[in-house]
Design a protein that fits this description.
Blueprint lengths: L6 E4 L5 E4 L2 E4 L1 E6 L2 E8 L2 E6 L13 E3 L2 E3 L6 E3 L5 E3 L8 E7 L2 E7 L17 E5 L3 H12 L5 E6 L14 H4 L12 H6 L2 E5 L3 E5 L4 E4 L4 E3 L2 E4 L3 E3 L12 E3 L3 H11 L4 E5 L3 H12 L3 E6 L6 H18 L3 E4 L3 E4 L3 E4 L4 E3 L2 E4 L3 E3 L2 H5 L6
Parallel strand pairs: 13-14, 13-19, 14-15, 21-28, 22-23, 22-28, 23-24
Antiparallel strand pairs: 1-12, 2-3, 4-5, 5-6, 6-11, 7-8, 8-9, 9-10, 11-12, 16-17, 17-18, 20-29, 25-26, 26-27
Length: 377
């Protein structure tokens, strides 16, 4: 759509300010047609960019302007005000930019810029012929996407033990688990993206060994995949509960999309769930399953949820917030055993449970690197 002056404002109506010793732009939002546009003034320069973070649509007008960048107040994604480029995780996509014209003390927001296609690099012949990425999570996806956005033209192969294409893992313990968003919000990109960008995704093909000398990755089944450069993006795995009964089918951890879908399926017939662990994953699962109207009990050894990370005051606040929504806490206690329909606690109590979700932390997946005798810092 082409419009001449979508919006006009006097330059003096958009002041600059000083915060924490750094010159920061004071921002304003105006709705134009179906877009919200963020105006940021830096001295005499004015930028017009999309007003929402491309990660979870956080309001950039409430964010922080540092130099020629704006940072989201929610998860600190960072965008270039001149180009819209996403500079830092967790955002993967750029924000839109509009042309701005200044004349006679007035600012005019004009046409939306078209995003230029990546230009092939002149030195493509000296770049690695094949890059293999082990890991199909957000890190592996972001690496593959950024290689293409920066003009890398040669082979990219992504290996993953997960059967699903890269997806938004945080949503697995939040909105998708709660049932408040459709599955369409979960994949980071659809299948067409990988085909269009010539990214060879080999899902369900876990790497079992890396031969550094031969520059080969051996996958399950024995196939060997040569590489020039290799990126290990294997992520983390849940810490498993080792008490009696923890291996039963109604006891679940939450890491993968398959884990999430299994919990959702069991939640359909469940009445009461016990969540073991009161850190981020445990509390997010508790909140999500309360949204599904399950009775939720949280068991943890801590005096307050999140206290070791955020301190006692925030811990008390978090507990009160969850209790307002119906979550029942059993703190300073641990699970001793899990029966078919109950969790027995170390202090002698018993909680009936149709479903048990364990969220007691994660550990990095280092086995592949250690077997290859790579340096693990």
């Amino acid at each position: 759509m082409q419009l001449r002056d979508w919006w006009r404002i006097a330059l003096l109506e958009l002041p600059t300010g000083v915060i924490l010793g750094a010159i920061l732009g004071i921002v304003g939002v105006v709705r134009i047609a179906v877009w919200q546009i963020l105006l940021v003034r830096r001295g005499r320069e004015v930028f017009a960019v999309g007003a929402q973070c491309t990660h979870y649509q956080g309001p950039l007008a409430e964010g922080l302007v540092v130099g020629d960048t704006v940072r989201c107040p929610w998860h600190h994604a960072c965008f270039d005000l001149r180009t819209g480029e996403a500079l830092r995780a967790p955002a993967l996509s750029p924000i839109a930019c509009w042309d701005v014209e200044q004349r006679d003390g007035m600012i005019s927001v004009r046409s939306k810029r078209k995003r230029p296609k990546p230009k092939p690099r002149d030195n493509a012949t000296v770049e690695p012929g094949k890059i293999v990425i082990i890991g199909g999570g957000a890190t592996g996806f972001a690496a593959a996407q950024m290689l293409r956005r920066n003009g890398y033209q040669n082979s990219i192969v992504m290996l993953s033990s997960d059967d699903a294409l890269p997806y938004d893992r945080p949503n697995l313990s939040k909105d998708y688990l709660a049932g408040t968003i459709p599955f369409d919000y979960v994949p980071l990109r659809d299948e067409g993206f990988y085909a269009d960008n010539s990214i060879d995704t080999r899902m369900g093909q876990p790497a079992e060994q890396v031969d550094i000398r031969a520059r080969e990755v051996i996958v399950a089944g024995g196939d060997k995949i040569p590489y020039d450069w290799l990126l290990l993006a294997t992520g983390a795995e849940p810490v498993r509960l080792t008490i009696p009964g923890a291996d039963q089918p109604h006891v679940r951890t939450l890491r993968s999309l398959a884990d999430c879908q299994a919990i959702i399926e069991r939640a359909k017939a469940a009445r009461r769930v016990v969540v073991i662990g009161a850190s981020f994953i445990g509390l997010e699962v508790a909140a999500a399953l309360r949204t599904r109207n399950l009775e939720v009990h949280v068991v943890a050894p801590d005096k307050r949820p999140m206290e070791r990370i955020l301190g006692p005051d925030i811990g008390n606040f978090v507990r009160a917030l969850h209790e307002e929504h119906g979550v029942v806490f059993h703190l300073e206690d641990k699970g001793a055993a899990i029966d078919e329909n109950a969790v027995r606690l170390e202090k002698g109590g018993t909680i009936e449970a149709d479903l048990v979700v364990v969220g007691i932390g994660v550990r990095p997946r280092l086995e592949l690197a250690e077997k290859a005798r790579a340096t693990v810092a």
